[in-house]
Design goal:
With 186 residues, the protein is α/β, with parallel strands linked by helices. It has two domains: 115 residues, Rossmann fold (3-Layer(aba) Sandwich); 39 residues, Arc Repressor Mutant, subunit A (Orthogonal Bundle), CATH 1.10.10. It has a five-stranded parallel sheet with strand order 2-1-3-4-5, with helices on both faces. About 4% of the residues have low confidence. Keywords: DNA-binding, Phosphoprotein, Transcription, Transcription regulation, Two-component regulatory system.
């Protein structure tokens, strides 16, 4: 999967990220490994590229202006259900991970992720787990649990901050301040 096969086949990849620097850096790294890479900066560009030539693989940023990465994944898979998509984000939570997998993503990675991380995620998604699941459970910190709960409620409210603040029983401005913070460490 990491380079051109014996038959000359180059795996095709669609990179979707609104950060042009990150997008082009990843594209260059994949091209150096023998991949055929197409890039897009938003939902519309990604969908147009997929309709021209459906990619075998896709790496999609979760948060972009306009339509989210989850919508990109859903629409890419509507064009071609065999596309294997990974969602990247700097704002990961359990709720968005579950949403990404439910929509058809094969894996989910936190940013920053490099080409090796992405290739390993595609490999993990395609094979059997190499290690058994750990026996011990490490509970998240209270701050992390609160952050994940807030994002799950916000996702359930379709991103509507006013509705989410009512359901959470906190002032809308307080919720906005909490949403601007990075996720706490586990």
């Amino acid at each position: 999967m990491s380079n051109t096969g014996a038959d000359g086949h180059r795996p095709s990849l669609l990179l979707v990220d609104d950060d042009a620097t990150l997008r082009e850096r990843l594209a260059r790294a994949f091209r150096e490994r023998g991949w055929d890479v197409t890039t897009a900066g938003n939902h519309e560009e990604a969908l147009a590229a997929a309709k021209r030539e459906s990619p075998e693989y896709a790496v999609v940023d979760l948060r972009m202006p306009g339509r989210s990465g989850l919508e990109v994944v859903k629409d890419l898979l509507a064009v071609d259900a065999s596309t294997r998509a990974i969602v990247l984000t700097g704002y990961g939570s359990i709720a968005t991970t579950v949403d990404a997998i439910r929509l058809g993503a094969v894996n989910y990675l936190p940013k920053p992720a490099d080409v090796d991380d992405i290739l390993a995620a595609f490999e993990r998604a395609s094979g059997e787990p190499s290690l058994p699941a750990p026996e011990t459970f490490e509970a998240p910190s209270l701050a992390r649990a609160e952050w994940e709960h807030i994002h799950r409620v916000l996702a359930d409210c379709g991103g509507n901050i006013s509705e989410a603040s009512r359901k959470l029983g906190i002032h809308r401005r307080s919720l906005q301040r909490k949403l601007q913070k990075y996720p706490p460490a586990r």
